[in-house]
Each structure stands twice: as structure tokens, then as C-alpha cells.
Design a protein that fits this description.
It is built from ten helices and ten strands. β1 and β2 form a beta hairpin. α3 packs parallel to α6 and α5 crosses α6. The protein folds into two domains: 166 residues, P-loop containing nucleotide triphosphate hydrolases (Rossmann fold); 83 residues, P-loop containing nucleotide triphosphate hydrolases (Rossmann fold), CATH 3.40.50.
Length: 258
């Protein structure tokens, strides 16, 4: 029996007059790549933002690894083991690739401010290990040759990889990727798919929001579909693709299909 890692229970969120999420429940199992798709404005990013603490839900809760997840506190969500990337890349633009990944690590360090100021032996050793691990992660995502390059000078695809490396630096159990293939060409998308496969193979569960339906259907174990803030389907890709409500959501008049 596969273990449930994350359970979303009846999540609802309103913004003014708009019901962005309506009673959304879903379960993500440990070790799977789980896709969340839907037309523009379906509520996918809102769901991510509620899950990762950027917004507080009006109703509902998340249970993660057996206990309730704090809401509205992004740093506590990261500490509990959920890391995310953003639809609009959010890197430290004036820092090198290596420094960006090291910044991700600092949530897992235990050096005191006093120790950092004095640069005591424990702090120096910890910094050395963080630097080593950051290099390893750059190698892991395939951009170690850009370790000393400012992140703003990296190509778009490499910035996306760097963002994934920085998220992995927090040692997550669940990696939430918000449209990682956006703006990528076919080659970059194929490389991204390989990287996500590797991440899953190495024991990190992946939640993927993506407009590229082909990528999702080829990569994900299960897929949930949102439309106008409601979940209209959740199943293996082959079943979801044949679901009439899903076909209508993507091809119907209310949205522009992607």
C-alpha cells in the first residue's frame, strides 16, 4: 500500500468576489510525480500558494507526512519539508549560481549568529559542507560549470535549473514545481523531464503544475484537473485524458486552451 505524503482536505480560497478554490481535496503519495493541470485561471497557482504558506485558506487543511501543515507561514512549510519554485523565476540576480544554492541551504544549518560573526571552527566546517553540497546540487541539475556566474547572466533554461537546485538545497520531501517548462524549447523540456525523473528516483516526491499537457501526461503517475477553482478529475493520465469534463474544460468556450 503506497503511503500518502500530502492530503489536501476541502481547501477553499476567495479573493473579493472571486472563488479561486472551491472545496479542493486531493492526495499525493510518497514517491510519485503528481500533476496539477487546468486552463488559465483554474486555480492552480492559488492552490500552490495556499499549500506553501503564501496565502491562508478560508477553509480546509493540509496534512503532510501525518501531521497538519501550518498555514500562512512559508518558512515553517519549508522547514517541514516542502520546497517550491515559482512561475516567475525568483533568484538572487546579483548572486552567483553557487551562492543562490548556498542560500537555500541555510534553513538547514544550526550555526548561531555569534558563531557566524566569530567564524568559529564549527561555523567554518558547516560553511565548507554547505559549499560542497551546493556544488553537488549544481552538478546534479547539470549547471556546475556556471557556479561562479551571476544568476541573471544564465540562460532561461539554466535559471530554471538553478531554481530547482536551490529548492533541493532545503532537503524537501515534496518538491512543488510551478510551470517549470514555461518558456523552454523542446530540448530544454526533454532535459527537464529527465531531471524530474531523476529527482523522483532519488526519493523526492514531485508536485507539478504545468501548461504543457504532453509533458504532464508523459511524466506524471496521477493527474488532478482544476477548472474554475473546482477539482473535476483525479486519476492516472490515460483516464484523465478521456474524461469528458476535462476535454470540455480545455476545448470549451469559457477558456483559451493551451
Amino acid at each position: 500500500m503506497s503511503i500518502v505524503l500530502l492530503e489536501a482536505k476541502n481547501i477553499s480560497k476567495r479573493f473579493g468576489g472571486i472563488q479561486a478554490l472551491s472545496d479542493v481535496s486531493l492526495t499525493i503519495r510518497k514517491g510519485e510525480v503528481y500533476g496539477l493541470i487546468g486552463p488559465n485561471g483554474a486555480g492552480k497557482t492559488t492552490f500552490f500558494n495556499v499549500l506553501t504558506g503564501a496565502y491562508t485558506p478560508d477553509q480546509g487543511e493540509f496534512v503532510f507526512a501525518g501531521t497538519e501543515l501550518p498555514t500562512g507561514k512559508p518558512h515553517l512549510v519549508v522547514e517541514r519539508g516542502i520546497a517550491r519554485t515559482f512561475q516567475n523565476i525568483r533568484l538572487f540576480r546579483e548572486m552567483t549560481a553557487l551562492e543562490n544554492v548556498m542560500a537555500g541551504h541555510h534553513i538547514r544549518t544550526d550555526s548561531s549568529l555569534f558563531g557566524i560573526l566569530l567564524q568559529n571552527r564549527h561555523t567554518r566546517e558547516e560553511e565548507r559542507l554547505i559549499t560542497e553540497r551546493a556544488y553537488e546540487l549544481l552538478r546534479y541539475v547539470g549547471i556546475e560549470r556556471f557556479a561562479d556566474t551571476l544568476s541573471r547572466n544564465l540562460s532561461y533554461g539554466d535559471q530554471r535549473r538553478l531554481e530547482i537546485a536551490r529548492a533541493l538545497a532545503t532537503e524537501p520531501q515534496l518538491l512543488a514545481l510551478d510551470e517549470p517548462a514555461a518558456g523552454m524549447n523542446a530540448t530544454e523540456t526533454a532535459q527537464l523531464r529527465d531531471l524530474i525523473e531523476t529527482i523522483r528516483h532519488d526519493g523526492v516526491t514531485v508536485l507539478l503544475i504545468e501548461h504543457d499537457v504532453k509533458l504532464v501526461m508523459g511524466l506524471c503517475d496521477r493527474v488532478a484537473v482544476l477548472d474554475f477553482g473546482k477539482k473535476i478529475a483525479e486519476d492516472v493520465p490515460a483516464v484523465v485524458q478521456k474524461n469528458q469534463a476535462v476535454i470540455e474544460a480545455y476545448l470549451g468556450g469559457g477558456h483559451h486552451a493551451h
